[in-house]
Amino acid sequence: MQVYRRAAALLAVHGGQSVGQVAELLGVTRQSVYNWLVTYAQAKQAIDLADAPRVGRPSLWTKDLEAFLIETLEQKARSDQNESTKWTVALLQKGLASRRGRSVSAETLRRKLRQLGFVRKNGRYVLSME
Questions:
Q1: Whole-model pTM?
Q2: Which of 48, 88, 122, 129 is spaced 20 to 30 A from 20 at the CA atom?
């Protein structure tokens, strides 16, 4: 997404739009657009539009949490024939907190579910058939 924004900004500025117009259109600051223009002008290589590697906070997600999540969802799928109870992100968060002592955000949990191949179908998470 960032590479697209940078390329769009360069094309728009070189096409005659002002830096302020481009910044507003892309939802970034004018300084960001100026930085991208300077970076590109110095090297003239598309690779310079890519994000620089950054070190972030280490993930709190562990293989144990992953195994617990998979086991919980698979066990529920086998035992829940009438679908009266469905796992929601909030219920999964509570389960991880109470049984594993780990608190994870709803977005982290949704991201992990997608990475593991689970999709929301008929109100519950199931493995994707794709």
A1: 0.49
A2: 48
